[in-house]
Amino acid sequence: MTTARVQLRPYQTDAIDAIRDRFVAGNDAALLVMATGTGKTHTGLTMVEKTIRRGGRVLWLAHRDELVRQPIRAWEGLAQFRDAGSAGIVQAGSRQYGADFVTASAGTIGRAPDDPDGALARVMSGSDDKPVRLLVVDECHHYADDGRGMFAKIIPALTAHADRLGISPPRRIGLTATPERSDGRSLAGIWGDGPAYVYGYRSAIEDGYLCPPRFVLDRMELPDDVAAQVAAARESEDGVDRETARALLDAGLVEWTIESMGRHLRGRSVIVFTCDLNQAGLITEGLRGQGWRAAVVSGSTPSGQRRALLRAFDRGDLDVLVNCNVLTEGTDLPRCDALVMARPFASKVLYIQAVGRGLRLFPGKTSCLVLDVLGSSEEHDLTHAVGLLEAGQDGDREPFDGMTKRAIPCTDGDEIAKGSRVGVEPREDTPEGDEREWLIMDLIVGEDHRIPLVEPIPVARPRDVVGDGDGKIPLPDLLRERRRVEAHWVAVPGSDGRALVSDLGGNGRVWLVNVCRGDDCGWMAYHIPRRAHKPRPLDRSPLDLGYAQALGDDLFRQAEKLVRRGAAWRDGPPSEAQRAIVQRDEIATTGYTRGDYSDAISGHYAARFWAKHGIDKFQREIKG
Q1: What is the DSSP string of 30-96?
Q2: Which of 18, 41, 227, 590 is deepest in the core (most CB within 10 A)?
Q3: What phi, psi does 472 have (nearest 5°)?
Q4: b/e for 185-206, b at 16 or more Cβ within 10 A?
């Protein structure tokens, strides 16, 4: 086996190509919109790597400490990045102005940005031979184009410092999952007229990169005056306004939330969103009284304690994290398979960010249940998973010629084949709750010969049918088969969720284990070759689960025998060899397919290894 790398997914490659094309066309800024959990950070870091390898330096800005440190952790944890150049942070206690890759908060950089001795000037002049060529701004929707706020001074200051140094101003890339602001302020002047590339929730769910949300409305009946107050609720960085939070508290929201969670969410890993810290504390106390392992995370929680709580949730040692406005951005908790909306969401942006917390993939997770106790899902019309932020949907209701993305059943029992050219028109009076807002009217054969259908077929765009602009991919490429090789991961019995395994056939097994190196905790990928007992780390530092999985996936790209997630062979009957192993070792299976037997066998032998060696054997292999 060669060294594993985190490979780009097809849409990430498309995104980088689109941004490059935007720059080649003469633009100095590009906006990248990607759904939460689909790899914005990795896509951004790949562009950082390319810039550094070409002799430039990069400044990466974020608005919160966690988001400042997150890309550094990934950079230093993956050989493919750290080999490209040095990385450092500029903030209190850390002044690594000359690093090739510098991350900082917008607050630090935006403080007196024109000052020739300020932080921005020092970053710009931090190297004599490597100029800053690229500025990346994470969660860029926080910065509007109206001259207000600290960030508004950074762009002209960058240009001024570049002129002083005799270099070109750095190009700009904005990263976000939600390219709009709840206050209506525009982003256009900073990031251009529109996104360079969009990969929305609809596409990510259909492509298998996110799990679908399943919405459950268990709505609390409110007195008319409280309902009116909720409808007019004001939001800030600290949560919902005090008057609305108090009114909901008096109306019994805490008790209703706890009872509803008991009805719907037992056995799940839950994140609860609340109005304020007082409500969060009361819910936590009530849940503990009902036997839940629950904890509060807030903006006032010390950073070390917050990391410990997130780590406990990630390992399955906590059932519930109750929070107020701290887990909407920059938090990767793929174990979460349930969300509770125990607060109003006046902001659609904030609501989408909250829903996105639960959509990351995790072994055994098929969906994320979103428990709504105040009706926010109705207010934002997100009762369907695919309704989130898809490109080309809003306002685009003109007839178009497109292509079917899958086989479409007809009313007469026949079907329209995948890849057929079709004429599509908007559907009038779509029934409430029906996402099929378009009608296939005719088939297109030859150059433009149209065969009208006896009865139009309702379809959803782009789930069933696609046209130019969907996903920012040219129509001829929309149905192109793309080679995806991703491992099928199985939770190791007896590991309490701290270990996952996938079988490499004759090449052994790949493990993902939740470990710690000092205070740095996360997931590491290991390869244990066949007939060997020593785990070989695929890199040197704990990472987020998504990165660790991607390293494991890369071994499958290099292996001769590929055991892929969702591969067709898994649906067939078990082989005679599998039957013999299951019978000989008395292995319990959960199903009767070849995939079920494969999972049971992998889990059985991995459990024996774990019972004998435990986590210590993996922990010892981490390089100091």
Answers
A1: EEEEE-TTS-HHHHHHHHHHHHHHTT-EEEEEESSHHHHHHHHHHHHH-HHHHTT--EEEEETTEE-
A2: 41
A3: 60, 30
A4: eebeebbbeebbbbbbbbbbbb
Separation CA 275–CA 279 (nearest Å):
7
Say how far apart CA 172 and CA 350 lie, in whole Å. Answer: 24
- Name the 3-class secondary structure at 597: helix
Three-point CA angle 310, 311, 314, nearest 5° = 85
Q: What is the DSSP string of 110-140?
A: HSSTT-TTSHHHHHHTS-SS--EEEEEEETG
- The Cα–Cα gap between 91 and 594 comes to 54
Averaged pLDDT of the chain: 82
pLDDT for residue 283: 96
Q: Per residue in 225-278, pLDDT tens?
A: 888 888 777 765 556 788 888 999 999 999 999 999 999 999 999 999 999 899
Preceding omega of 462 cis (within 30 degrees of 0): yes
% the chain with pLDDT above 90: 28
- Contact, 554 vs 7, CB < 8 A? yes
Ordered alpha helix ranges (H), 217-347 = 224-231, 242-250, 253-264, 277-289, 303-315
Tell me the pLDDT tens digit for each residue of 204-229: 888 889 988 888 889 899 888 888 88
- The span from the CA of 46 to the CA of 40, in Å, is 10
d(CA 408, CA 440): 10
The β-bridge relationship of strands 132-138 and 57-62 is parallel
Look up residue 414 and give its two tokens: 């026949």
Instruction: Count the neighbouring beta carbons within 10 Å of the beta carbon of residue 3.
Output: 12
Per cent of the chain over pLDDT 70 is: 85
**Phi, psi of 464, rounded to the nearest 5 degrees:** -100, -40
Largest pairwise CA distance in the chain: 76
CB 53 within 8 A of CB 80: no
**For tokens 């109750």, what's the residue?**
322
- pLDDT higher at 26 or 112: 26
CA angle 479, 481, 486 (to 5 degrees): 130
